[in-house]
Design brief:
There is one protein chain. The chain has 213 residues and is of the alpha/beta class. Helices cover 44% and strands 17% of the residues. It has 9 helices and 7 strands; from the N terminus they run E-H-H-H-H-H-H-E-H-E-E-E-H-E-H-E. The strands form 2 sheets. It has a 5-stranded parallel beta sheet. Strand 4 and strand 5 form a beta hairpin. The longest helix is centred in the middle third of the chain and has 19 residues.
């Protein structure tokens, strides 16, 4: 049975991005593009934190370290690069299957949300190209002069933070009772999948383009 919108319970489809909609990680290539040599230098300045993060597999700590490479960088240039990178992802880096699922959800009148640890400068443009209703992602802090501080604005949108952010968005939009489809490919999506009515663990194998219940 196709999952269509009902009068008493709307449907929301939440998609992770890296590995779920895209073929591979998007954050590293983007930071190399906008930070250049700042990225390896930022890591070299804090070797102990880097080693600790790697040994503990602390994704939040590692995200903070790599994003520190943008400290002092003007926001306008990064946003322009983010818009171009979002177009590149949309044109050349998407998987063939899960984006078809996203399109099918839209055709059925479902609300579609990206929930990702990827970065706001390029994820918002990508979301606009995909026609989603909201983008919930990792944000970067800026100072009053419009330069990045090198810190995250809020928490890394990964793990339990994904579920928290989606729950907050559902409440803000009056969709607390929505039937939820969730798509993710890694352990960082476990909490998001656990809160959904229809969790879809995306593998390397093909995912059916039509949502079914």
């Amino acid at each position: 049975m196709t999952a269509r919108v009902t009068a008493d319970r709307p449907v929301v489809a939440a998609f992770d991005v890296d590995g779920t909609l895209t073929r591979r990680d998007s954050i590293g290539p983007f930071l190399l593009r906008v930070a250049g040599l700042r990225l390896p230098l930022a890591l070299a300045r804090r070797p102990r934190a880097l080693v600790t993060g790697l040994l503990r597999r602390d994704q939040d700590r590692l995200k903070e370290l790599v994003c520190s490479s943008l400290a002092g960088v003007d926001e306008r240039g990064v946003l322009a690069a983010g818009a171009a990178y979002g177009r590149e992802l949309h044109e050349r880096r998407l998987r063939p299957d899960t984006p078809a699922r996203l399109r099918r959800h839209r055709e059925l009148g479902h609300r579609v949300v990206l929930v990702s640890a990827s970065l706001e400068p390029y994820l918002v443009p990508l979301g606009a190209l995909l026609g989603v209703d909201a983008v919930l992602c990792t944000r970067l802090e800026t100072d009053p002069e419009g330069r990045f501080t090198g810190r995250l604005d809020g928490a890394n949108c990964r793990g339990p933070e994904k579920a928290r952010r989606l729950d907050a968005w559902l409440r803000e939009t009056g969709l607390e009772r929505a039937e939820i489809w969730a798509y993710g490919d890694s352990s960082g999506d476990d909490a998001l999948l656990a809160m959904s009515d229809h969790p879809v663990r995306v593998r390397r194998t093909h995912v059916s383009p039509e949502p079914v219940a």
